[in-house]
Each structure stands twice: as structure tokens, then as C-alpha cells.
Design a protein that fits this description.
This protein is an alpha/beta fold. It has 2 domains: about 190 residues, Rossmann fold, CATH 3.40.50; about 180 residues, Glycogen Phosphorylase B (Rossmann fold). The strands form 3 sheets. The chain has a 6-stranded parallel β-sheet, sandwiched between helices. A 4-stranded parallel β-sheet has the order 3-4-5-6. Strands 1-2 form a two-stranded parallel sheet. The radius of gyration is 21 Å and the shape is globular.
Length: about 375
């Protein structure tokens, strides 16, 4: 996922300057091996995770279990600073009396983002609202205790100030522009010959708007018969994937929509590069998913134009390197996607060069890591 990739890249750039240990609720063998390759220990608590409703129903017990495990892990060696992300991990530095940097991708969505919450079914919404009633104040309190807060961009910074009443330093998401660059193998060129490719990235959560993407594509297909939609995913959710596949069948577009699943990191730039446009359909401005939009930046680095929610001064320059459109405006979304698919080759090439250049100039890991290093050093010293 975007946040997971982001954390990994930052740690990879910090490991030469600090001894780092990563603690996660749960992990995969692939993640453990990736961190091992860069010489960083990753410790999994091997427990129920925050993706489970049972976790939230038993939250006080989960916090106690986490506290005991993390305290025992830290006891084996002295660490000067804990860097946390979202609730409830931001509680533990305070409980353990440690200096604390919180990397806040967004104010915790379950507590502070009504647009995010209302996407869930009634029973889940009720559980989320009940949990928020009892625990939102703890999230606000813990964040206020942090020695420093770092966030993704001006949009998330604005909402952090509004909700937590504290300021945040900004470190933009870095993109490996040597890896994410325009390139397509002969095999893929042959496979997708004569197709106008649209790509969409999802984790199958409602906030990604993948069902909306499919319905938008159905309308695009009527105007651009050669259009094909490739859907990549960062999480395997068979039930949701099957539901979305049924919708494509009902709309008569199943032969033009491919669910690629998890695409290998080495292949991903080629998927972006073969596409004429990447479309993201998240619309909650409070969400880091919307404002950060890592797939948008990766695709632009590959010279692919993008259509996304209108967060200004972030990546897409409206009408130049893509379009900023509220995805709930289906008609406008369709028109903008069709407009890109119909661009003349020279016009598209000029826009593609500008898209890549904008990412190369603004989003790099050297700048991102330097913000984190300066913040950590200011607290240590």
C-alpha cells in the first residue's frame, strides 16, 4: 500500500544515520525479507490487527497487549525516539515516556473523516461511531503530546491544525524517478496493441471509489471503443473483487476490464507507461489517500497523464498534465478521460514530458528524508 511503501523508502534512506527497529501489528514474509535486505529488523507483534472489527470491540485489551509487547521489545536495547503513525500507535510513546515523532498521514479517518465513514455499511458505521465516541479524545491527546509531527502536504497539514490544534512539518512523498520512468517491454506493447489503456489503483476499500471507476469506464467505453481498464490492487480481497467483476458483467464491459491484482514493483512502471491515463476516484479531501495519491505521482513519473480529485498544488496541473475533477461528477470525469484518450500524439508527448518533469523536480527521497532527519536531530539534541 502507499503508506507502507512510503515508510519503507524513508527508512531505507535513514538507516545509515540511525539504528532503526520496525514494529508492526502483523507482517508478511515478503515485508520481512525486504527490510532484511536493507539491514533493518522488523518485528511483528503477531496479533489481531486494526483491520478486524473484533480489534475495535476489544480495543482496551489490544492496547494493553501492545503496550506489554512493545515495552519488552524496547527493554532489550535503548532507543531514543519512537516514530509512530496513526492511532492507537501514537499512544505508546506517551505511555513509555519516550520522545515522539508522529508521522501523521492524515487525522485518523475513523474518528475525524465523516466522508470516509459514511462509505461503510450501516453496522460498520455504527461500530465506528461508537468507537469514535469513546476514543477520539485519546487520539487528540496523544498527538498533542508528540515532540514533533510530520505530514505529507499542505492539505493534510491544514486538517491536522484544525483537528489537533498543532502544527506539522511537511515532507512530500518521494518518488524513485529512476525506477518510475517511461518504459514498456515489447511483450506488453504486443499484448496491449491497439488498446487505449486506463489504469486504476485500489485496495478495495470504499474510499478508493473502484466501483465508481468501473461505472465511469462503462460510459467512457461508449465514446472510446478501444478503451480498456486495468485495475491493480495492493490487497487481495476476493469477495470485493468478485462483486466488482459481477458489476462489469452487468454493464457488459467484462471483456474490457482486467483485474491485475498485486503487480510486482519491477513491472508496475510498465503498467503505468502503457496507459494513456491513470484515474483515481477517492474524494475525501481529509484523506491522505486523496491528497497524497501515490499512484498518481508514480504514473506521472512514467509520463502518464492523470485524472484525480481537485487537490491543488500537489501533483496534477489542471489542463496541463491531466485534469482535476471531483469523481462524483460522472459526466465531467467521462469527458476528461475521453479528452485524454483522444489527444494527438505530439500534444500528448508534450504533456507527458511536463508530467514527468513536475515529479522529478518536486518529489524526491533526498528532500523527504532530510526533513525527517532534521526533525529527529532537533529532538535528540
Amino acid at each position: 500500500m502507499g503508506g507502507t511503501k512510503f515508510v519503507y523508502e524513508v527508512i531505507k534512506n535513514l538507516k545509515e544515520d540511525y539504528k532503526i527497529r520496525v514494529i508492526v501489528e502483523n507482517s508478511t514474509e515478503e515485508s520481512i525479507n525486504k527490510y532484511k535486505d536493507i539491514g533493518v529488523d522488523i518485528i511483528s507483534l503477531n496479533k489481531l490487527t486494526s483491520t478486524s472489527p473484533l480489534y475495535w470491540i476489544t480495543l482496551p485489551i489490544q492496547i494493553i497487549i501492545d503496550y506489554i509487547k512493545i515495552k519488552n521489545i524496547l527493554r532489550s536495547q535503548e532507543y531514543e525516539i519512537i516514530v509512530s503513525s496513526m492511532f492507537p500507535m501514537n499512544i505508546f510513546p506517551y505511555l513509555l515516556h519516550k520522545k515522539h515523532v508522529q508521522y501523521c498521514f492524515e487525522p485518523f479517518a475513523f474518528f475525524h473523516d465523516p466522508e470516509f465513514v459514511k462509505n461503510f455499511p450501516l453496522i460498520k458505521r455504527s461500530l465506528i461511531r461508537l468507537t469514535s465516541f469513546f476514543y477520539k479524545w485519546i487520539d487528540v491527546f496523544a498527538t498533542k503530546q508528540a515532540n514533533a509531527i510530520i505530514t505529507l502536504n499542505n492539505t493534510t497539514s491544514k486538517f491536522i491544525t484544525e483537528i489537533y490544534k498543532v502544527g506539522a512539518k511537511i515532507s512530500y512523498a518521494g518518488i524513485d524517478t529512476k525506477h518510475f520512468c517511461p518504459f514498456v517491454s515489447k511483450k506488453l506493447i504486443k499484448k496491449y496493441k491497439d488498446m487505449d489503456i486506463i489504469v486504476h489503483s485500489t485496495d478495495y476499500t470504499p474510499v478508493k471509489g473502484t466501483e465508481s471507476m468501473i461505472r465511469i469506464f462503462a460510459e467512457v467505453k461508449k465514446k472510446s471503443p478501444n478503451a480498456h481498464l486495468l485495475i491493480t490492487s495492493t490487497i487481495n480481497n476476493v469477495q470485493e473483487k468478485n462483486r466488482l467483476e459481477r458489476i462489469t458483467s452487468e454493464l457488459g464491459i467484462n471483456n474490457n476490464v482486467k483485474f491485475l491484482g498485486f503487480v510486482d514493483y519491477d513491472i508496475l512502471p510498465q503498467i503505468y507507461s502503457i496507459a494513456k491515463v491513470l484515474v483515481q476516484c477517492s474524494f475525501s479531501e481529509r484523506s491522505g489517500t486523496t491528497s497524497m495519491a501515490l499512484p498518481v505521482k508514480e504514473a506521472m513519473a512514467c509520463g502518464t497523464l492523470c485524472v484525480r480529485y481537485p487537490v491543488k498544488n500537489e501533483d496534477v496541473q489542471d489542463g496541463v498534465t491531466g485534469f482535476l475533477v471531483d469523481p462524483r461528477d460522472t459526466r465531467k470525469m467521462v469527458n476528461r478521460v475521453v479528452r485524454i484518450l483522444g489527444m494527438r500524439p505530439k500534444e500528448y508527448q508534450n504533456a507527458a514530458r511536463m508530467a514527468r518533469l513536475s515529479i522529478v523536480n518536486k518529489y524526491n527521497w533526498i528532500y523527504t528524508s532530510s526533513v525527517v532527519k532534521r526533525t529527529i536531530n532537533s529532538i535528540i539534541h
